[in-house]
């Protein structure tokens, strides 16, 4: 505001200024002009643009702090990525070890299962072979019994001894015709109904009977299946006596006296 404008305002209002007031007006105008002049010549622009000039300065001051924050955020994100990558790598290693262990365990279980199957197969084959062998042996024995039964032996001492020898061969009982005949002649003279009524066995109530003078308890213990269960039967008597002699003396051939 100029001095002239200040004075004009006082005139328009009808106010008369004294010397002091005029001096004050001049001072005010001077101050106002100086302020205007200072603002007009401020670096970087016209009057009224000081706020616009201040904003870039503030922005430029804030930029380094924002960049640093972004750098910190990026660094933290990279650290998180590295940690996750390390965890994933360790998990992958653990999974690989567990997979290898599982595969090894499955392999061992499969090998065990195969070994068990092979053992079971071998056992089954052995059982079948044993059953076949047993069946074959049973069939062979049955055939031998049938053959022995089919053979006609004379009903005399010679026939009795030969039939007894056939049964003894089948059962694995040792003895010869000579050994059996010799002992029969000493014990009973070939009489299948012979009975001793005077020896110690008779006194004890179990007299010796038959071709080879066998007592009942001995006959019961050494009777051979396939022969008559009769102490007086000549073939059963010979076979039981020879079975006892084989157990006691090794064979009827080794017997030369009372036995």
TrEMBL record:
Residue ranges under compositional bias (Basic and acidic residues)?
101-116
Q: Which residues form a coiled coil?
A: none
What Pfam family is a match for this entry?
SLT
Which positions fall inside the Transglycosylase SLT domain? 184-254
Q: Which domain of life is it from?
A: Bacteria
**Record field: compositional bias (Low complexity):** 55-71, 118-128
Region entry Disordered: which residue ranges? 46-79, 92-151
Q: Which InterPro entries match?
A: Lysozyme-like_dom_sf (IPR023346), Transglycosylase_SLT_dom_1 (IPR008258)
Instruction: Output this protein's name.
Output: Transglycosylase SLT domain-containing protein
Species the sequence originates in = Streptomyces desertarenae
Lineage, top ranks: Bacteria, Bacillati, Actinomycetota, Actinomycetes, Kitasatosporales
């Amino acid at each position: 505001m100029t001095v002239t404008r200040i004075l004009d305002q006082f005139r328009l209002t009808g106010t008369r200024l004294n010397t002091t007031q005029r001096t004050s007006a001049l001072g005010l105008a001077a101050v106002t002009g100086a302020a205007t002049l200072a603002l007009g010549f401020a670096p970087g622009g016209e009057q009224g643009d000081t706020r616009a000039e201040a904003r870039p300065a503030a922005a430029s001051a804030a930029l380094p702090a924002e960049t640093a924050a972004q750098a910190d955020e990026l660094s933290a994100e990279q650290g998180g990525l590295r940690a996750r990558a390390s965890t994933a790598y360790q998990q992958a290693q653990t999974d690989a070890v567990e997979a290898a262990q599982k595969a090894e365990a499955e392999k061992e279980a499969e090998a065990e299962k195969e070994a068990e199957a092979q053992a079971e197969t071998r056992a089954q084959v052995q059982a079948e072979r044993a059953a076949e062998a047993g069946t074959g042996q049973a069939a062979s024995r049955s055939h031998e019994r049938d053959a022995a039964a089919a053979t006609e032996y004379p009903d005399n001492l010679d026939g009795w001894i030969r039939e007894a020898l056939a049964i003894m061969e089948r059962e694995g009982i040792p003895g010869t015709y000579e050994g059996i005949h010799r002992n029969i002649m000493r014990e009973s003279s070939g009489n299948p109904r012979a009975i001793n009524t005077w020896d110690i066995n008779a006194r004890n109530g179990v007299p010796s009977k038959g071709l080879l003078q066998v007592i009942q308890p001995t006959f019961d213990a050494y009777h051979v299946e396939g022969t008559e269960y009769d102490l007086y039967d000549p073939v059963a008597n010979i076979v039981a006596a020879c079975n006892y002699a084989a157990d006691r003396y090794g064979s009827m051939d080794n017997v030369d006296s009372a036995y």
